[in-house]
Amino acid sequence: MAARERPQPQVWCWPAGDRRALYAYDSGTWKYAPVTARLDHPAGRTEYQVILQTSRNRATVHRAYRWPQPGLRRAHGSTCEPTDRAPVPKTTAG
User: Fold this and answer.
1) CA quadruple 28, 34, 37, 43: dihedral positive or negative?
2) Spatial CA neighbour of 11 closest among 36, 39, 50
């Protein structure tokens, strides 16, 4: 099967102000990593896309990690359910 013919994962997102988070083990320390999306693949594999600051002097990076694995642990959940819909654009009255 060509890459474009493979079944696509179900993608789940949380609002920016209420994201779940993980701790990711990176460069010898556990780092807080807010989750931007969870991908549930048809074959049963789960991936989390996170924002990670690799060091104090570096900008943040986006990474995807398979779940579960020893280098990840749950930091906290979210108070809302994830959605598979695109965010609704904000509009102003007028």
Assistant:
1) positive
2) 39
CA 8 – CA 91 distance, rounded (Å): 31
The candidate with the shortest Cα–Cα distance to 48, out of 72, 65, 73, is 65
Query: Domain spans of the chain?
Result: 20-75
Q: What is the pTM of this model?
A: 0.80
pLDDT in tens, the chain (94 residues): 555 688 899 999 998 889 999 999 998 999 999 999 999 999 999 999 999 988 777 788 999 999 999 999 999 999 998 888 765 555 555 4
Contact 52, 24 (CB under 8 A): yes
Distance CA 20, CA 15 (A): 9
> What does each C-alpha distance from 3 to 7, 10, 14, 42, 80 come to in angstroms?
9, 16, 27, 14, 33
